Amino acid sequence: MHIIVTRPQPQANQLCELIEAHNQIPLCLPLIKINPLQLNNKIILNSFDYIIFISQNAVKYGIDYYHQTKPIKTIVIGKKTLKTLADFNIQADIQAPAPYTSEALLSLIPLQQIKNQQFLIIKGEGGREYLKENLLARGAKVQTADVYQRVLLNPSFALLKPIPLANIASIITSDQILEQFDFCLQQANLSSIKQCPLVVISQRLQDKAVKLGFKHVLMANSPANQDLINVLLKIAGHFALI
């Protein structure tokens, strides 16, 4: 099976290598690029109760905020973010449970009674405000720091045209990538690929993909590469039997 990988680099290459190791064919078509941003001097660097790293790129480009603020507790969302933080010899105090989303993080007991607690969220430019809004609703004081931006890419999808639809699946890991994927398919006159299996990482993405017209949307347990591979292997096995 041919697997369309839309993640940014270097995550895209890492996933493609794993796909190849499982005897499938990766099609590396990153739809966003990650660019670092300068640290925001307007952030009031108080002593925070919590610092939250939204993603591994948030750690990579925003670790200086940690060293400047010395938070009491450090929070991460996903497994890759946890590992990236550990690469800086920093241990997270709190990690979101599966499926490793903001919603899952907010379900944790330590984040229920947080009135007047100080939070700093390290994140990418744009994106959802869901986490910030819910922390504020619980009475917390929240600042955010954007440490990277996502730049949309528009690669050629010409290599997809000769491939039979029955031999294609795709991976989508964010709202922005999903929207750009939909745009690129329309631009290349390949909307028929919406009939092929699409693997996403959350219920929210699954619902959005269905609204955009994707017909076979499956949800992985997490954004971790192995969880994505597990779904893809089930898809490949299913089509091998047809």
How would you explain this protein's 3D organization?
The protein is of the alpha/beta class. The protein folds into 2 domains: 2-31 and 153-240, Rossmann fold; 35-150, Rossmann fold. It is built from 8 helices and 11 strands. It has helices at 11-21, 56-69, 79-87, 102-106, 130-137, 175-187, 203-211, 225-240, and strands at 2-5, 25-28, 32-36, 50-53, 73-76, 94-95, 118-124, 141-152, 168-171, 197-200, 216-219. Strand 10, helix 7 (203-211) and strand 11 (216-219) form a beta-alpha-beta unit. Helix 2 (56-69) packs across helix 3. The longest helix is centred in the C-terminal third of the chain and has 16 residues, at 225-240. It is elongated, with a radius of gyration of 19 Å.
Overall shape: it is: elongated
- CATH class identity of the largest domain: Alpha Beta
What separation lies between the terminal Cα atoms? 13 Å
Number of strands: 11
Order of helices and strands: EHEEEHEHEHEHEEHEHEH
Low-confidence stretches: none
Strand order of the largest sheet: 3-8-7-4-5-6
Tell me about the largest β-sheet. 6 strands, mixed
CATH architect. name of the largest domain: 3-Layer(aba) Sandwich
Summed up, the domain count is 2
Helix content: 25-40%
CATH topology-level name of the largest domain: Rossmann fold
**Number of alpha- plus pi-helical segments:** 8
User: Which structural class do the helices and strands define?
Assistant: alpha/beta
Provide mean pLDDT, rounded: 92
- In terms of DSSP E residues, the strand content is 15-25%
Radius of gyration: 19 Å
Record keyword descriptors for this entry.
single chain, alpha/beta, Rossmann fold, six-stranded mixed beta sheet, five-stranded parallel beta sheet, 35% helix, elongated
